[in-house]
Amino acid sequence: MCHPSAGIRQWWINRSTSSSELRNRLNARGRLQRILARENVYRLFVDESGDHTTTHATAVDKRYLGVIGVAFRQLDLVDVRQRLDQFKQDYCDQYDPDGPPILHREDIIGKRPPFAWLKDENASRVFQRALLEHLAACNCTVFAVVIDKESHWKRPYRKLRHPYHYCLHALLERYATFLDRERSLGDVMAESRGRTEDEGLKNEFSNIYSTGTTFAKAALFKSRLTSHELKVKKKESNIAGLQIADLMAFAATRDVLHRYRGCKIETLRYFDSRMIEIVREKYFVAISPTGQSRIDGHGRKILA
Length: 304
Fold this sequence. Notes:
The protein has helices spanning 4-16, 19-39, 60-63, 74-91, 105-110, 121-136, 149-152, 163-182, 195-211, 218-224, 240-261, 270-280, and strands at residues 41-49, 64-73, 141-148, 185-191, 231-233, 286-287, 293-294, 300-303. By secondary structure, it is of the alpha/beta class. It folds into 2 domains: 4-35; 41-303, Ribonuclease H-like superfamily/Ribonuclease H (Nucleotidyltransferase, domain 5, 2-Layer Sandwich), CATH 3.30.420. The chain has a 6-stranded mixed sheet with strand order 5-4-1-2-3-8. A two-stranded antiparallel ribbon has the order 6-7. A hairpin with a 5-residue loop joins strand 6 and strand 7 (293-294).
């Protein structure tokens, strides 16, 4: 049975507001609530630099694997997509809206199709500087985790042997900590690496969500991640966030190695050295109990 006051309130609404006006108000309130909800929801886009299978005592590209996450607010993603698409229209040769080029660092640096036109040095210089300026303006948070595979495989006590999966644990611990600090929620999307690898990564993600990690309890992940399922998309899907993660992955990995292993970055090409500067401005910064800002171990982490 309805409380009498509820009937009085409804009578007053009917008396003072037309049904169309009331619907408009309720719809506006609903839109506002959806906007506010999305404002505190993030998506982490994940890509890697290097591979999980090979290793070498001295070759940096083979010894280390970097797994990089770039977090955007869901509310900003529409603008991120539109701005990246506009960049392609403005700067990519023979842009086709039905088949836009996918921004992939190796293709850009190697000047391979669809970026073969970058063999023109002047065109390459203009394009790369504009792309770097575009990425510098992105409002995102970066997490970089790098594993020393040579060292990792010499530690038989580690139950988790897959280097990528080991990095995923550390990456999600930091992402969930970031979400907790922001009092936000979020999900995760990774670039596809093949059916077998994708299934393995999805299973590991679900395990982390269900049981936690060595350093973070399951409650943290269940309270901050909106799904126990990892989203996986292929490169050709034209996902803006995945393309940005791809473009930043090499630089972030080299920056971690420079910080923890003293690897030289002075000899890197301009594109990568400038990208390192951009990434450094976007790392997740943890705040200690004494109020100190910390990137190392939080936005930037090495696993030995």
